[in-house]
Amino acid sequence: MPRKTRAVALKHDAGRSPNSPVAVTAAPLMGLESSRETSSGLMAVPVWERMAQHQKEEKSKAEMENLRLKGLIQEQLKISKGLEKLLRKRCKSSMSSASDAETSAAVLGVKRPRTSDTEEAAVFASLASGLEARLSEMKAVFEKSGLTHDKQELQETQMILDERRGPVMEVKDAKILPFDVQDCAAAIWQCMEAESEATVVGGATSDTVCFKSSMPLRQHRAPDAELAVRAVIRRVVEESTGRVVFVWESVAECPSRLPHMSASAKGAEIRDCGWGLLEPLRSATGERSSILQLCSYLMPQLCGVSAEQSRQHTHGLAEMVVPCYRDLWNKRQRAVENTLMNGAIDAKHGKVHIKQEAR
Asked: What ranges does the record give for the region Disordered, renumbered to this chain (predicted)?
């Protein structure tokens, strides 16, 4: 039996009033058909209340970010004026040498790319080559993880022994969204494309997106490190069932030495392969709702050491990086929620406008 290292179940807060106009629970929202599902504590998660709280937090963050950016812009204006004066003086002097150009780049904060475009393309091509295999594993992975039959919100993390991959950290997540599958799928892909366009030139097609990002790695009693993540995600729409499948491959690199590393290790690499399923929830009342289920296998390893040495540190490394991936998932899910809420508000305002014109 796999040993669970972390299991978090979202429960309904009894201290909140169920009659609150915001606290609409998932059970009445869904109009679940079976009594077992209706009585499930996890299915009674206040979905709308959670989303409303997220919206409130996002508003506060935006206000604080606006204040920070305002101060930053003012500082940048001062710096730019100083640089303008400096550049004017240099233009009047002799032609700058190559070393001067290097100095100017450092002053302006321009960083040389660490990886060439060719190397970047090779990394993404290598990741994309494994997506077909992930699609073929989808059914077996969901059966093994229990996600095929467990249609409720959850967050679970446990170390398991995979027949082919060996020890992996299995990370599961499921969220209920009070919108239909088409709207949810469009919002998810819109967010993925936006992230791709912001990080990888030409990294998005109709069914595949590539992106790269950095994740802070919090360390106990040690300076924070940074994970450089590159990922490829593909979606497959099942027209017959209305479901949308997502599969991904990613690799994260950490060149810094971590506490769990041996002295001879040159860094760490985290491989991540995952599966996602977006499908409608059964409803007797006709309420639109969907569930997004994710399952990921994290496989950390040390670089520059033997396979046996790396395996000895697998569990410790996995425990360290799981929160990073959780944070990344949470940020993306909030972005999807924001997109859905904004779309719903715009649609409502559009209907009101049409009615007023009809009068």
From this structure: 1-22
